[in-house]
Structures are given as structure tokens and as C-alpha cells.
Design a protein that fits this description.
Structural class: mainly beta
Distance between the termini: 19 Å
Number of strands: 12
Bound molecules: thymidine-5'-diphosphate
Largest sheet: 5 strands, antiparallel
Radius of gyration: 16 Å
Order of helices and strands: EEEEEEEEEEEEH
Number of helices: 1
Helix content: under 10%
Oligomer: single chain
Amino acid sequence: MIKSSVYDCSIIELPINHRDKGNLTVAENVKNIPFNVRRVYYLYDVPAGESRGGHAHMELKQLIIAASGSFNVVLFDGKVRRTVTLNRPFNGLLVVPGIWRELDDFSSGSVCLVLASCKYDENDYIREFGDFLKWKQCSITQNAPPTFTKGNYCV
Ligand code: TYD
């Protein structure tokens, strides 16, 4: 997991139930999401020009969906940067652990829906970009996963 790359982050197309009176999309554990959802949260009323994210997770997997409107997700794995535009409520971006992400360019009224594999745990966050780079560097130079704790980098 620690050697994850931006290319491990993929778009999952969720099924659409089309009707004249509107569409319905279902996201179901295991069936079309490659993890069990244990938490759901959503971002909304993001002011123009604001960005969110700016962190990585050590264990958490997420499916990020533009439930309304559009925004960009910028992914970085320590080497490669990749920008994914989300603008369809039936497309989810799978973000695996060990990826730095920033969300920006939110359209007015957009809603960023996030399905997450774990309960909220601040200890799972890497919030400093320098910490992230050190952590990824560790993963490249060591066979065994480093035990990363804040302020305690592997050397
Ligand atoms: P954070 O994940 O930093 O938001 P973003 O990356 O979108 O900017 O979370 C913002 C705040 O909300 C932070 O203080 C932690 C809190 N929070 C929870 O309490 N529970 C949650 O499930 C999440 C995602 C955040």
C-alpha cells in the first residue's frame, strides 16, 4: 500500500437507473466499491477559489464523487502528479492510501461526496507535505513498511 501510485487511483463507474422523472445511482459495498464503507461525509458551500484536502492517508481508502457540480482532484504519489476532473454523479474516484490529494476548482453549488473505508482517525492523516515526502521516500528505500508516527520518521 505504501508504494501506491496515482495510477492505482481509478474512476469507478457506478450503475445508473434512468427514468424520465430522474436518475438514481447506487453505490454498494463490495458489489461496486472495493472496500466496505464505514463513513460518509460531504463538502459543500466551498467558496470560489478555495481548495480542500492537502493531506494523505496511511490506511484510508476513499471513493470521491461529484454528487453535484464539478471540481478537480490533484493526486500526487511522491513522483507523479495527476489531475482528475470529477463532474458526473455516477463516477467515483477511488483514492488509495499513500496519495497526497488536493481538491480545487469547485463549481458553484458543487457537492463532494466521500465514501470512506474507516472511521475518522486523525492519526491516519499526514498533513505536512514534507512528512509525506519523507514517508514515501521511506517506502522506496525499505522493504518493510516503516512505522510512521508524526515527528518520528524512518531514516
Ligand atoms: P479534513 O479532512 O481536514 O477536511 P479537508 O481535507 O476536506 O479540508 O477535515 C476538516 C475538519 O473536519 C477537521 O478538523 C477534522 C474534521 N472531520 C471530522 O471530524 N470527521 C470527519 O469524518 C472528517 C472527514 C473531518
